[in-house]
């Protein structure tokens, strides 16, 4: 008979061997990661692999999507510095894991997904998280009905198309995102000030580009 997997043990190992060793030091963030069952947000045949530090394929979508690694996601959250009173928008929420974790930190979370099948899956998986509202729409357009946001976290990479999201930031709001592809990609945080939105490098990171954030193809004669 196959032994049962102790996911709580795997979750603690993820925190100790992946998050803490990669400079994720905020105790509120660490507690949030410990409070959410990552195995409930991955494909059924990937549950036992839910806590390894790789991008997990997202089940059920019309296009190939991935879930950020625990380390990259945790560092993005720490870069965004969410507070308990903050209103957060997660762009590219897929099955809802990132929104679930942020719901343990912030006051409220809007989980935006463009793929209808993934959005439906997220609604089911997030039903027990009372301060999360799953919504469906194009990712680069954000969710203006809930704006302005104190934190916007993009759960994937972008090559272009951030202007609308920047416009949905509150004063002093932070937008945490992975920009670029491959070895040239990095995590950046944008902060809205009185007169402009400024950018600050966070750390080296890469992920799959989310739908709608691809760089326009150049016209070649």
Provide a compact summary of the structure.
The protein is an alpha/beta fold and 221 residues long. Helix content is 25%, strand content 25%.
Tell me about this structure.
The protein has 6 helices and 9 strands, in the order H-H-E-E-H-E-H-E-H-E-E-H-E-E-E. By secondary structure, the protein is an alpha/beta fold. It has one domain: Vaccinia Virus protein VP39 (Rossmann fold, 3-Layer(aba) Sandwich), CATH 3.40.50. The N and C termini lie far apart (64 Å). InterPro entries: PCMT, SAM-dependent_MTases_sf. Belongs to the methyltransferase superfamily. L-isoaspartyl/D-aspartyl protein methyltransferase family. One of its GO terms (molecular function) is protein-L-isoaspartate (D-aspartate) O-methyltransferase activity. This is Protein-L-isoaspartate O-methyltransferase.
In what order do the strands lie side by side in the largest sheet? Answer: 5-4-3-6-7-8-9
**Number of domains as seen in the coordinates:** 1
Strand content: 25-35%
What CATH calls the topology is Rossmann fold
CATH superfamily: Vaccinia Virus protein VP39
């Amino acid at each position: 008979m196959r032994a049962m997997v102790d996911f709580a043990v795997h979750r603690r190992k993820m925190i100790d061997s992946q998050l803490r060793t990669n400079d994720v030091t905020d105790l509120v963030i660490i507690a949030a990661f410990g409070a959410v069952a990552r195995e409930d947000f991955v494909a059924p045949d990937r549950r036992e692999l839910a806590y390894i530090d790789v991008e997990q394929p997202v089940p059920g979508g019309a296009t190939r999507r991935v879930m950020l690694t625990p380390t990259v996601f945790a560092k993005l959250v720490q870069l965004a510095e969410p507070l308990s009173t903050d209103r957060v928008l997660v762009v590219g929420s897929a099955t809802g894991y990132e929104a679930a974790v942020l719901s343990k930190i912030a006051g409220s979370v809007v989980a935006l997904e463009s793929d209808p099948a993934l959005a439906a899956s997220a609604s089911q998986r997030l039903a027990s998280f009372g301060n999360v509202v799953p919504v469906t729409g194009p990712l680069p357009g954000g969710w203006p009905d809930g704006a302005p946001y104190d934190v916007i976290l993009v759960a994937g990479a972008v090559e272009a198309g951030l202007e609308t999201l920047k416009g949905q930031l509150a004063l002093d709001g932070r937008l945490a995102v992975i920009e670029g592809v491959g070895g040239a990609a990095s995590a950046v945080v944008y902060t809205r000030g009185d007169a402009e939105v400024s950018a600050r490098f966070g750390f080296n990171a890469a992920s799959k580009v989310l739908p709608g954030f691809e760089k326009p193809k150049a016209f070649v004669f």
